[in-house]
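Exercise 3.2. Students should predict the tertiary structure of the chain below and write it as structure tokens, then compare their answer with the key that follows.

Predict this chain's 3D structure.
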Amino acid sequence: MKIRRKQPKLPKSGHPLYIIGYRAAPPTLAEVRTWFDLEYGGPLVLKEDAADPSALVLATHGPWTAAYSLALPPSEAASWKERLGWGHDRAGLLLRATAPASKAIDLVLHAARLARGLALLTDGTTYDAATHDYRNPSDWKDRPLAGFITEDHVTVDHAESGDPGLERFYTRGLAKFGLDELETFRPLGLPSRPVLEQLADIAGEILRIGHLPTVGAAISLPGIGLALRVIRHRTTSPVEGSIPCREITWQGA
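Answer key:
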């Protein structure tokens, strides 16, 4: 009896990992395949619906799958152009297959490699929907993605919080891996760099572990010499939409 491989599950197209804006003619499947194989070793297997040029192209490399389309309808391309404030008249999107957080690292890396290739091949711009970063071809040339580096996929930042006298430090990008974002609060006026560096280290360790503690629970992170505790869970509501966050504190282990 012939065993049929289970097709990877993809999220709804309304939740892309990357948006790609460009002006030039889109690359052919052969061009995408050749570029990827030269950069990362092949074979990259691409499958498209020949009857529907706007359908997603499945891009599989070994056990990892992502999907992309560089043929969004003009109305959607115009909407992204206005929302993202760029000059690109054409747009595409890229999604990764769904997977548990413990298995998401390779899938996110695979999707980022495809986004990098599509930006370079179209001379376009990618918008990371989770970190809100814009990357042009010159930015991607400085990020070869030869292996997984947390900083390529997750960012940390800080801003004034709604509480007087407190500064909010937070991650962006853990959502790509099916995880809540992290946040912590510190009094205004204290040096921010040490907090940002430790928060980035914590994000990397959480990705390595593949899960977050529940509210009230603590976890030791011996790899970076810290002990972490989750204080509360909440959902923030920025312009980009609702984002689940877990407030954390930490101290030396």
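Discussion points: The first helix runs from residue 29 to 40. Residues 154-252 form one domain.
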